[in-house]
Amino acid sequence: MSEKSVSVRNLAMSFKDVHAVKGISFEVGRGEVFGLVGPDGAGKTTTMRILAAILTQDSGEAHILGLNSTTDKEKIHDRIAYMSQRFGLYQDLTVEENMRFYADLYGVKRSELKASMDKLLDWSSLTQFRKRPAGKLSGGMKQKLGLACALIHTPELLLLDEPTNGVDPVSRKEFWNLLYKLVDEGLTIIMTTAYLDEAERCHRLAFMDKGKITARGTPKEIVGLIPGGVLKFNSDNPFEESSKIARSTDAVSTVFGSQVHVMGNITEEQIQKSINRQPELIRSSGSVEDAFVYLSETEADHG
């Protein structure tokens, strides 16, 4: 791995009787996109707030850009940007006024502000909308404005908490193109996402479930954790046949449209016996989504 931007060791955090994060560890290299992937309630947002030096963990350590998340909070705030799920755009302010507001919050020098704003507006294709109130923007444009506001002070690390949640597919693609441009310029990005197709776009991933990291690695390495790959077949009754396989074997079986995907140490003959027919079976290495389903069902630690 390249030089580390983030190093997390045995991080734990609880809220009364709820153990949100349970002793997780991972590292993020400079200039990479690192994805925290998992269902709602997995502990992703709590982890991000610790990395942003907003919450203080109960135990463990987090070092952000060489700074301690507990003792160097203000220094960390100056060098990172955190875009939460409900990033605070002011709907009545224009695009330009929102950017000026965040520039003031971050203490951006007035002598540098115009050039920085012009660059970010051009980069995010918002120049022609600079006088439009934020409340009049589309969902995708609001996300781009939120990103431009977060970047106004030129941070070294960008934390994004489900940044494309509820955004249409075209806007999601445009947003990712912007992220790749940032990485090309040397920015490090950590993001949470529930979209598994987005997870495949990250350089490395960590799967979180019930406060724990169950697997980490590149998308290819994550997919490689499925023993034997995936056996797929088309079905007129996919949910029924998937259930039959799950009940009669130790394999993990799930449905994707009209296809059944079967994962684990299972033979073609076992599948045929379970559903009492001989479908055309196709073996593949699988996808990150397949791996996520498999790891969630088996609950093994592949970190």
Architecture overview:
With 303 residues, the protein is α/β, with parallel strands linked by helices. The chain has 11 helices and 14 strands. It has a 6-stranded mixed sheet, sandwiched between helices. Strands 2-1-4-5 form a 4-stranded antiparallel sheet, with helices on one face. The protein has a 4-stranded antiparallel sheet with strand order 12-13-11-14, with helices on both faces. A hairpin with a 2-residue loop joins strand 1 and strand 2. Helix 3 runs parallel beside helix 5 and helix 9 packs across helix 10. The model has no long low-confidence stretch (mean pLDDT 91).
Radius of gyration based on Cα positions: 22 Å
Q: What is the beta-strand fraction?
A: 25-35%
Residue stretches low in confidence (pLDDT < 50, at least 5 long) are: none
Percent helix, as a range, is 25-40%
The biggest beta sheet reads: 6 strands, mixed
3D shape: globular
Distinct helical segment count? 11
Mean pLDDT: 91
Question: Count of DSSP E strands?
Answer: 14
Alpha-beta content class: alpha/beta
Strand order of the largest sheet: 6-7-8-3-9-10
Order of helices and strands: EEEHEEHEHHHEHEHEEHEHEEHEH
Report how far the terminal alpha carbons are from each other: 16 Å
